[in-house]
Amino acid sequence: SGGGFALWHALRELCGHHPRLCIALEVSAELPDAPAGGDGGGGAVEALDPRWLGEPVRAALLPTDAYLTNKHGYPTLSRRHQAVVSALFTRDVQVVLHGDSLHTPPQPPLPAAPKPEPSAGSDGKDGQSAPSRPHPLEPYREYISYLYRKLPAPSECELAESGYRDYLQSPLQPLADNLESATYETFERDQIKYDTYQSAVEAFLRDKVPEERVASAPPVVLMMVGAGRGPIVAACLRAADATGRRMRMYAIEKNPNAVVTLQRRAEAEGWGDRVTLIASDMRHAAPPEQADALVSELLGSFGDNELSPECLDGAQRFLKPDGVSIPQEYTSYVAPISAAKLHAACAALQDGKDERTHFETPYVCKLHSVGLLADSQPCFTFTHPNRPAGGDALIDNRRHGRFVFAARDPAAAACVHGFAGYFTTRLYGDVTLSIHPPTHTPEMSSWFAIYFPLQHPVLWRAGEPLECQFWRDGDARRVWYEWAVTGGSGGALTHIHNCGGRSYDVGL
Amino acid sequence: SGGGFALWHALRELCGHHPRLCIALEVSAELPDAPAGGDGGGGAVEALDPRWLGEPVRAALLPTDAYLTNKHGYPTLSRRHQAVVSALFTRDVQVVLHGDSLHTPPQPPLPAAPKPEPSAGSDGKDGQSAPSRPHPLEPYREYISYLYRKLPAPSECELAESGYRDYLQSPLQPLADNLESATYETFERDQIKYDTYQSAVEAFLRDKVPEERVASAPPVVLMMVGAGRGPIVAACLRAADATGRRMRMYAIEKNPNAVVTLQRRAEAEGWGDRVTLIASDMRHAAPPEQADALVSELLGSFGDNELSPECLDGAQRFLKPDGVSIPQEYTSYVAPISAAKLHAACAALQDGKDERTHFETPYVCKLHSVGLLADSQPCFTFTHPNRPAGGDALIDNRRHGRFVFAARDPAAAACVHGFAGYFTTRLYGDVTLSIHPPTHTPEMSSWFAIYFPLQHPVLWRAGEPLECQFWRDGDARRVWYEWAVTGGSGGALTHIHNCGGRSYDVGL
């Protein structure tokens, strides 16, 4: 209830957000109304009030009077209660049974073991006990155990991700650093992503060379900027084969270790003269001709956060005037979240320096113990190639977004620990990739979400809007984000996080 | 206006309470309504809205249209404007004149100097200027200068205090530490305090020995616990002389350096056998007889904060069953304040350790750049001797106070940076000492106030009450305070400061 959350919020504030303070929720016979439907992706978890999903719920008290009775006399739970308990299991919440035994099933759920003789050293009390008689709450335990066994087995993708849940990672700096081989390997495991790139290139090739001109048209020229160890080069070759279009391509890669692997792969897979390797930073490369399409996979969890805009702006000089970029467009999304665990993880990073630093850094993270408090909103969009109308005009990749969020449950207050960030991209035509929950590409594992912390969590008062602002800013050497809660919720305000890029930036 | 303050609050939050962010107030022709009368002690400063008094106001813009015209045609200010400008001067706020010259006094306020010849190197522009002609705003400047000269000269007490304004001092730990000679000297400079003690002892002696029994009554026995270098011993002797009562006294002092001074003073002033020195900690002293009155000066800026209750509870075994304590009673007071400067001073104390520590410590401080946001309320009271009804019952010196403050100006929001603490004491009968502004003992300089910080300043929303709680807690070795904003103002809450005495305590 609102009263329960207000009480929790007050207690936590008074205790100074002590990390050892946890919650036991009471799952009563009457459940509060479900909040308005979210933007999907949550599955069973949607049964839980999102305000609590991000809070440190350790136990759920399930009284016996919350059970119904099935036709055989056994205790059972309503569908909504079942969904709640299943959701709690996915969050590793301990279920605590309590109350009087209100059900007497016709037969004991477990065969009664023969009563053992009291041991020699036992006192009178022990002698009177009947350790083999089932606990009076055994039928309830058995039912909960049944719900647990009924949980769907985690998918391969979920299994792979489980070790990363709620673990904060610093975003990659692919321009400044060379990726390690293991990082490429992790990326390349995601076949869904490369299949989608192949589909996009196929669609492009079919548009570029209509069926009737397949024989006569000159080869289509593709330019892969940031080829890595070649997975998308291979996808392009497969796309050319699948569509029967003639194609040759250039693969530009700056990382010398990746170039070695790329060369071996070219030999092993017989890429021959269809692929020309250019071992160079794409910002300084000088390929011998312009391309019909610039292919890249430079997107980060927040779309533009690994500087895809700056890279592609620099690389579009390789592109013919009518050339296209794959991806053609990408958009980031933000949503306010309850995420006490992530906030505590930020606080635990404190190292005695400026305590703001770790709260002013966005983290790549497999969001798990997180409650989505409002539907996400589109944040920043970039379109490529980016040729400003003025011709000679400089490209301005700075952005500013102002968002007014409406709470999913307008009658309930919640605590905002920061923002979740996602992205979608249109690779070509209607071929898209997305980690935005409502449109997430099924089974794609390549990107986790991004978490923008708030140093001091904000109480989002019931019934009020929450206004937030995000900025993408930069100078000649670096790019960064700034973010703040700027009002709307009864004067709730935060400082502008990462003002001037003081705590976090991405180097150009 | 409320809008102006809200804007300032939002800007400051967005800038993360940056210490270089300051305010220029516009002193317009129409001044906002004066807030409800406070509890005195502020003088001219009362003309200013208390919400701004604690904020970093560096400049005041005074437009020419805020001036009236006197009968001679000179610009002048209304009484309220004069009070505001005078108050600004006491806060070292720079006054900025602006606007068109709207007054033409009949004669120039300064004789025009002869126009100097343009210097050899001057260009045409310089040649055209008339540097000696008074600035068009000169009549306004002259008037402001007149207001400044009209300010009352600071009193001796104010002069002595001026170096301590807004300077945070850690409270004394007189039980654990021995005071230095310079500290005693500072104390002893305050004749008002010792005169008041003398009055209290005189009143006690007259009550104890009625006029008709002066000759026959046995000598009254006084026991001075914590005699220091003897100023109150001397006051007691003067009281005995002034009333003609026979008296002998014991002076207990633990500080060996003070005892030496005390012995010299006894010899120099011929105290003779009227005063027996006992060089011992009052907790372990064993004087040869019980006293009619226990005299002490153990009070701190917050009354009980230097452990007067614990000391006097221990010393009351020296007291006859009908004996009295001088002081008989003392009460602390608290009030929410706006005090950005003090808060910034706390923040500047950060030393890379737990950042809470310096915000969970009360500081003795000559409050100056401070706005009193509500009338203060009595906090903790102690009465001596303290003989619980049960006889053998243990004395419990723990206290808890819950306060609901109403803003002086209910229509205006304000920022609470912490609490001011004061005390009053009834020494004997109706003889009192007070540093509580409404009843402050005139010209007494002995105590500054105490400042309880809030780590994260709280926005006190217009029209809402502010609930705060204070605790005095302790264990066998130490005593401490805890404090928090616990609601009332739109859910405004802070953590409980100094929980369990983790950041600050006074050793027993």
Automatic annotation (TrEMBL), chains A, B:
Q: Which GO terms describe its biological process?
A: methylation; regulation of DNA-templated transcription
Q: CDD domains, from UniProt?
A: AdoMet_MTases
* Site location (Critical for specifying symmetric addition of methyl groups): F187
Give me the ranges of the annotated region Disordered: 99-137
- PRMT5 arginine-N-methyltransferase domain segment(s): 158-326
Pfam families, per the entry: PRMT5, PRMT5_C, PRMT5_TIM
The residues responsible for catalysis, as annotated, are E297, E306
InterPro entries reported in the protein's UniProt record: Arg_MeTrfase (IPR025799), Arg_MeTrfase_PRMT5 (IPR007857), PRMT5 (IPR035075), PRMT5_C (IPR035248), PRMT5_TIM (IPR035247), SAM-dependent_MTases_sf (IPR029063)
Q: Spell out the molecular function terms from Gene Ontology.
A: protein-arginine N-methyltransferase activity
UniProt keyword annotations, A-Z: Methyltransferase, S-adenosyl-L-methionine, Transferase
Q: Where is the PRMT5 TIM barrel domain?
A: 6-150
Locations of Pro residues compositional bias?
A: 105-117
* Gene Ontology CC annotations of this record: cytosol; nucleus
Q: Which residues form the PRMT5 oligomerisation domain?
A: 329-505
Q: Does the keyword Transferase apply?
A: yes
Protein residues bound to S-adenosyl-L-methionine: Y184, K193, Y194, E253, D281, M282
Q: Which residues form a coiled coil?
A: none
Q: What is this protein called?
A: Protein arginine N-methyltransferase
- Source organism (scientific name): Prasinoderma singulare
Lineage of source species: Eukaryota, Viridiplantae, Prasinodermophyta, Prasinodermophyceae, Prasinodermales
